[in-house]
Design brief:
By secondary structure, the protein is of the alpha/beta class. The chain has a seven-stranded mixed β-sheet, with helices on both faces. α2 links the parallel β4 and β5. α1 packs across α2. It is globular and about 50 Å long. The chain starts with 15 loop residues before the first strand and ends in an 8-residue tail after the last helix.
C-alpha cells in the first residue's frame, strides 16, 4: 500500500533550504549539490527561474550550519533521508537536479519516491556524473594525504579557489569532502534500475571526471526519454554557464513552468 502523503512543508527543516516558495508555484525544483558542496551553491538560480517555480536545495550534514552533525557516508542512508525530507513538498510536481555526487543521490531519490510513495518527478536532471551502473570511483580518498587529495580535487576545476588556499577553510571543508567521496567510492549499484521519468544529462566538454559515453549511459536508466547536452568547461562548467544551463533546464520543463493566462 502506498503511504498517504501529507503536504505540510516544515519550517526550519535541516535537510532542505527553501530559496523560493509560494502558494502560486506550479512546480518545485529540488537541487542536490556535488561532493563537498552546499545548498548555497544554487542560490543564484533564484534570479533565473520563473516565478512559478519554487527553488529548494538539499543541505547535507557536516557543513555550514550543519557542521556539528556527522557526515553521511552511505548512499542508502543519504537517499533515504532526502526522500523523507521531500514528502511534505510532494503536493505539487517536483523536478530534481543533481550535480556530480548529487546526480547519483537524485537518481536514488527518484527510485525511492516511485517505490515508496508512487510519485514520479516530472524530470530528473543529472550533471557532471556518469550513469552509476557504469561509473566507478576507483581511488579510495583515505589512501591520499591532504595535499594529494586536494590536488586531485583541484584538477576537476575549482568553484572557489580561495577555499583551497586558506588553511582554516580547508580544515572546515576537507572532512565533508572526504566523507562525500567515501560515499561515492563505496556506491556500487549492481543492476540498472530504470525510472519512468525523463532524464536530461549535462556535462562539461573538458570534464576529467566523466566521459561523454558514461554520461550518455543515463539513457539506459529511463523509460521516459533521454536528452544529453554538453557545455564548454570542466567539471564545474555550470558556474560560467549558469545562465545557459538554467535556461535550458527551464525550457525542458516546458508548460509546467508557465503560469496559465
Amino acid at each position: 500500500m502506498t503511504p498517504t502523503l501529507v503536504a505540510r512543508p516544515v519550517d526550519g527543516d535541516p535537510w532542505l533550504r527553501v530559496f523560493r516558495g509560494g502558494l502560486r508555484s506550479r512546480l518545485r525544483l529540488v537541487c542536490l549539490p556535488h561532493a563537498g558542496g552546499t545548498a548555497g551553491f544554487f542560490q543564484s538560480w533564484t534570479a533565473r527561474i520563473p516565478d512559478s517555480v519554487d527553488l529548494l536545495a538539499v543541505r547535507y550534514p557536516g557543513r555550514q550550519d550543519r557542521l556539528a552533525e556527522p557526515c553521511v557516508e552511505r548512499m542508502d542512508v543519504l537517499a533515504d533521508r532526502v526522500t523523507e525530507a521531500l514528502v511534505p513538498y510532494l503536493d505539487r510536481p517536483v523536478a530534481l537536479f543533481g550535480h556530480s555526487m548529487g546526480a547519483s543521490v537524485a537518481y536514488e531519490v527518484t527510485l525511492r519516491l516511485a517505490e515508496r510513495f508512487g510519485v514520479a518527478p516530472v524530470a530528473l536532471f543529472v550533471s557532471g556524473h556518469g550513469a552509476p551502473h557504469v561509473t566507478r570511483v576507483d581511488q579510495d580518498p583515505d589512501q591520499l594525504d591532504d595535499e594529494e587529495f586536494l590536488s586531485r580535487i583541484g584538477a576537476l576545476g575549482q568553484v572557489d579557489p580561495v577555499v583551497f588556499r586558506s588553511a582554516k577553510l580547508r580544515e572546515l571543508v576537507l572532512p565533508a569532502l572526504r566523507a562525500d567521496l567515501r560515499l561515492i567510492h563505496r556506491h556500487l549499484p549492481r543492476t540498472a534500475r530504470r525510472v519512468a521519468v525523463p532524464i536530461v544529462a549535462y556535462l562539461g566538454t573538458a570534464d576529467p571526471a566523466c566521459t561523454p559515453g558514461q554520461v550518455a549511459a543515463w539513457a539506459e536508466l529511463t523509460t521516459g526519454g533521454f536528452r544529453l547536452r554538453a557545455f564548454p568547461g570542466d567539471h564545474f562548467y555550470l558556474v560560467p554557464a549558469e545562465a545557459e544551463l538554467v535556461a535550458d533546464l527551464t525550457a525542458q520543463l516546458g508548460d509546467l513552468t508557465t503560469p496559465p493566462a
